[in-house]
Amino acid sequence: MFCETFRRLKVSKLSKNCEFGIIKMSNAHIQFSERKSDVDFEQLRELFKIAAFWASERSTEDLSIAVANSEPVITVKDGERLIGFARATSDGIYRATIWDVVIHPDYRSQGLGSKLVETVLSHPKVNRVERTYLMTTHRQGFYEKIGFERNSTTTMVIYNQSHFNSLQSSVQFHEVLGG
Ligand SMILES: CC(C)(COP(=O)(O)OP(=O)(O)OC[C@H]1O[C@@H](n2cnc3c(N)ncnc32)[C@H](O)[C@@H]1OP(=O)(O)O)[C@@H](O)C(=O)NCCC(=O)NCCS
Questions:
Q1: What is the Å distance from ligand 1's center to 108 Cα?
Q2: Which three-class secondary structure state does DSSP give residue 155?
Q3: Residue 160 pLDDT > 80, yes or no?
Q4: How many CB atoms lie within 10 A of CB 158?
Q5: What is the CATH number that goes with domain 14-164?
Q6: In this predicted model, what pLDDT tens digit does every residue of 36-81 receive, in sequence order?
Q7: Domain residues of the chain, as ranges?
Q8: Residue 48: closest CA among 12, 87, 14, 11
Q9: Which residues have C-beta atoms less than 6 Å from ligand 1?
Q10: How far is the CA of 114 from the centre of ligand 1 (A)?
Q11: Which pLDDT score, from 0 to 100, does residue 22 have?
């Protein structure tokens, strides 16, 4: 659980309550959690459909695999309602990457997005790594306010290619997908 100063939260709308990541908003009860068991996959699918153009078609089955293989996984809830989500993958020491940062449109511009990213960055799986990356198409300004820099090195990508599945490998793989 995380309990830090919510320095970026606008005090007019949010007040600090340092009990296990609980934030009180005027008419809301916002809670940050790192427990994967707190992820409601149907609500997550809906949140992505509304607010994450790159993830709007994801199925609950595939999301559960992504969550099982990510750490940390941070949820933001208003009561029982899922209103924010972010996750990272990390080797714990050299490199980490943050993925799928989303705040529900009804809850934006109140500091929750920054708090969400800062919560990922402060997690033990991420806070010691040399470099933490993320990919963004048009939110550079948001991330720069948190401390990210634009990165001029070339990023390369390979999309899933089914012929790799049938390649003879010199290593015998054991498939553990999670979910
Ligand atoms: C990006 C997102 C998570 C931000 O959530 P949020 O709760 O509104 O963020 P915050 O309230 O913490 O905003 C922090 C600051 O960034 C600013 N900001 C937000 N988007 C920005 C942008 N594109 N360019 C510059 N500044 C931006 C806000 O104005 C705010 O500034 P302030 O603190 O000086 O007022 C939210 O807009 C979202 O879910 N967007 C859709 C999904 C998305 O694009 N995710 C990022 C994918 S990589």
A1: 7
A2: coil
A3: yes
A4: 6
A5: 3.40.630.30
A6: 999 999 999 999 999 999 999 999 999 999 999 999 999 999 999 9
A7: 14-164
A8: 87
A9: 8, 51-52, 101-103, 108-114, 136, 139, 141-142, 145
A10: 7
A11: 61
